[in-house]
Amino acid sequence: MIAVPQFIKQPRYWLGLLVLCLINMALAKFGLWIAPFVNGSISAIWPASGFGIATVVLFGPRYLPSILIGSFFANLGMIPAPLAFMFGVGSSAAVVMAWWVVHLDGTFRWQLDRIVDVVRLSFIAVPLAALMSAVLGASALVALGAMPGENWLNALGVWLLGDLVGDLVVAPAVMSLYAAYVVRPSRGQLVEAVILIVLMVLVIGGTHLQWMGTPNFDPQFHLLFPFIVWAALRLGGFGLAISILSAAAMVVALVLGEPRWVGTSVPYLEVVNLQTLLIILSVPGFLIVAALAEHRHVERRYFEIAYRDSLTGLANRTALVEKLENVVNTAYMNGLDVALLFMDLDRFKNINDTLGHAMGDLVLQEYARRIQRCLRNDDFVARLGGDEFTVLISGHNAREAAAAVAHKILAAMRTPIKLGGHDYVVSGSIGIAALESMMTLNWSDTNRINVAEELMRQADTAMYRAKRNDSGFMLFNSSMDSHTKMQLQLESELRVALAEHQFELYYQAKVATASEQIVGCEALIRWHHPTKGLIEPDKFLEVLESIGLILPVGAWSLREVCEQMRQWREQGLPVQRVGVNLSMRQFLQPDLLVLIDQVLVETQIPADLLELEITESVAMSNANLTIDTLIALKQRGIYISIDDFGTGYSSLSYLKRFPIDAVKIDRSFIQDLEHESDDAAAIVTATIRLAHAMNLSVVAEGVENALQRDFLMKYGCDVLQGYYYSKPVSADEFATMLMRGHYH
Ligand SMILES: Nc1nc2c(ncn2[C@@H]2O[C@H](COP(=O)(O)O[C@H]3[C@@H](O)[C@H](n4cnc5c(=O)[nH]c(N)nc54)O[C@@H]3COP(=O)(O)O)[C@@H](O)[C@H]2O)c(=O)[nH]1
């Protein structure tokens, strides 16, 4: 059974077909009407064929019947029905030919906004279609006895030219008018188009009517060219289409209506002139429009590349900088406020590292959308790169508006995002810098560019402060600058500290819960500042990490620990395992294993005396890499513990994947141990039970009193560490402990 296409059942289709049939018929009638003025039988202009090509290219071959039927009924009554039918078949075949040629490789754009499409339509599809129609039409005339065979070639020529003119004028014009129906021209363009046509009628019509009928009258149709160029340059395809159709109508009317040809037909040379004129008005016009559209497209692409962020579609850094300078200028002129929000996603790197960059991209795209939804139309949002976004707000009370927007954005971020089947909440930190209108009144011109830069810097500083304080968002204030200066000073002092050997390692004992004998220790760094005295690591570790100095300092710690063990062993002390903390950067550095091997070989320390402590978040930052590194460390016999356990977002069952030896319960839980029913107590006991089930040793950090010790003893914690036994002490003091065999 033949399947009936769906469109057949749609009334819209039949209505469309009917309308197209009627238009086709009307245009064919027009062609037939002008035929006697020219040579009596075959029309010099056949607009129906151009309209047919346009409708089938635009709406598909399903509308082909409109051409066959329109042509048939237009001719019926004037010529025998079989001939009328053959003409209809010829017209339809010509349109199929044009449709096939333009769609050969599926790249044709009926909007005619590329030169290649205008060329394909005008120089290949239309000539082939016109030739086919002419061959079939002239042959049908001869075959059905309506014309002697010797006139075939002549009829073919006239038919061909008539179709060419109709196709080249009407087909691109109808396509362009349809494009304007889809993307409406502006009111200004419509007004300009009307003015253009009125002027064209006045100039051409006026000159023509003035001289018409005088001896040696020469029509001044070349005066049409400036109007066509004007339309093509200023109004695009739509303006050009209506100008060309108006010009064609006017020219045909003026030529046919000339008193010289009344009662006779227009001489053939005049007809060819008319046909040539219409073709050279149309084809170059549409080529100009296409060339301009291509140029605009290239410009738009350059603009996109230069000013758009390709991942999120938001404005990029360059666009922000330009916009900021403009907004600052406008604010200066109009006494407005400007506020800049600088936003950064918290721990975004972890998402990239653990879930992959593709998921990271999804997060950025989703958060770009969420930020946009929190803004008004005239706010400006940009992605600076990575996970950094900015929002620019200007107007009255921009600072208050910025704070409200920051609230909205942070609230929008709290909705979890689904990644790989799991819900994640990615929080953000926002810094806000604002310029009040009162201040702007005093700016000089050069100042204003610096002001834009300064705003960016201040918002950035406030964002870092918000991130550090975990406070969501913060407004910039000048005290933040002094903090930044102090940070810079700290950075340079730390570089000096490394070069001048101002770091020292202290050692804190770890004792076995059952015997309370030392079973090892943890090496903890201290800084002997030349003026400020002994500084604890919490005050400088983060800066070391942020400026990358943690790598040489970490390498120094590792070497120092092993060197110290070697010395203690040489002194005959009962050296136990010593733990060294590894920071994120250290753990992820590619030559960590090379360094460890080198140090162990140099100091001749057995690998099982070395313990590496990595925090949960370090282990989780890149699970696959962590497993590989840990396996390599284990193969060497190095002892591995997970530090600060309970503060990250992993679970023991997740850590099961890692080849580790011990977990160190974070001291915040130990300090909260008071009653067995407390949350902390429940967490500690559950951790001990689970860790033991997984054959892991459990160390409790921060044991400060007998109550905590007793609790941990009762629940079978293996090792205790804390001030209750010993604070971190210098290497010499720890050597004394080792000598005594006790932590006192
Ligand atoms: N990457 C490196 N990190 C290091 C290194 N040296 C230290 N650190 C890390 O710095 C953080 C702070 O260390 P510190 O100020 O030395 O504090 C340690 C102990 O003094 C403290 N502690 C131990 N017992 C108690 C106690 O009973 N009460 C109490 N209030 N504090 C106590 O805990 C710190 C040891 O913590 P941990 O490492 O988690 O076991 C700290 O995070 C260090 O890791 C280094 O060379 N490299």
UniProtKB/TrEMBL annotation:
Reactions performed catalytically: 3',3'-c-di-GMP + H2O = 5'-phosphoguanylyl(3'->5')guanosine + H(+)
InterPro entries named among the record's database cross-references: Biofilm_reg_signaling, EAL_dom, EAL_sf, GGDEF_dom, MASE1, Nucleotide_cyclase, Rev_trsase/Diguanyl_cyclase
CDD domains per the UniProt record, alphabetical: EAL, GGDEF
Gene Ontology terms, MF aspect: cyclic-guanylate-specific phosphodiesterase activity
Chain ranges of the GGDEF domain: 336-478
Predominant cellular place of this UniProt entry's protein: membrane
Keywords of this entry: Cell membrane, Membrane, Transmembrane, Transmembrane helix
Residue ranges of every copy of the EAL domain listed in the record: 487-742
Membrane topology of this protein: Multi-pass membrane protein
Membrane-spanning residues: 12-35, 41-60, 72-101, 121-144, 156-181, 193-211, 223-256, 276-293
Pfam families: EAL, GGDEF, MASE1
NCBIfam families: GGDEF
Name assigned to this protein: Diguanylate cyclase/phosphodiesterase
